[in-house]
Amino acid sequence: MSDKDAFNKLRSDMMDLYEAGEYTAARELVLANEKAFPEMAARITFWKMCLFSLEDKLDEALSVFRSGLDNGLWWAESQFNDSDLDLLRDIPEFKKLIAESVQRWEQERSKIKAEHVLLLPDVPRPEALPLLIALHGRSGNKESNLEYWEVAKNEGWAILSPQSTQPLFPGSYCWDDLHTGVQNILFHLKNTLDAYKIDHERIVIGGFSQGSGMAIYTALLQEADIRGFIGVGTAWNNLVSIDSFAKNVEMLRGYFISGENDFTLERSREIQAVLEANGIACKEELHSELGHEFPVDFEKSFSQAVEFIFRK
Question: What is the model's pTM?
């Protein structure tokens, strides 16, 4: 099992215990395994803070927070809106630690540079390449979910994975600011179009979770030649922004991949309803027993999405 798979299993097992209200067991599981994932220190430290808080072990939660800061970690202020931390919210020491974290976050944010991953088909093609723009979810990065999107490369597509410049904690980014997010995406897209022979008639944008919402929003703006979008576990809070831009869009189709057990399913269907009311054709692929994740057979899903988007 790869390190990434091992960490994903730890997160999944921890979340199962968390959702069952077994906070102590979840914390003990994390403590027993955290040394195996030093690169995930910020994420794991935050888990411990939340779990200690839920156990009403507030001194321990504050100690974990202090230790994380002492070890060079930091988190954006929005992270501390998590309801798991409600018992800490009025404690002066907690407020002091948040202020220190935010100050460090602001310093680190100023150092963020534009980054992306570009994957090309293994077999060179004489014709222009179709391009998939793949957006990471909230708290992800340019490497997130590429093991799924890479199926597009096997079908002859180039894959551009831009990384947001909006940090949440070390190695983790979001698309919260729409203007900044769109500018990040268009910057990397322009550079790719300038450097490679891309078929402008076959550009698709996709994403996972918040990245899916960002993909839809970017496609609706029509500031690039995007023919369709693929949303996996679509999460997006701003329905008004989608409705307002969808009114004047032509030649765009959307393909939604959802799980019956995904907490975003209701919102995904609300988005589909808004788009279809504005004349944008959408199709939903629903998987039973799937949660907020990619389906195992995503290669089949991608092929079906492309067929729908370019159907005449």
Answer: 0.92
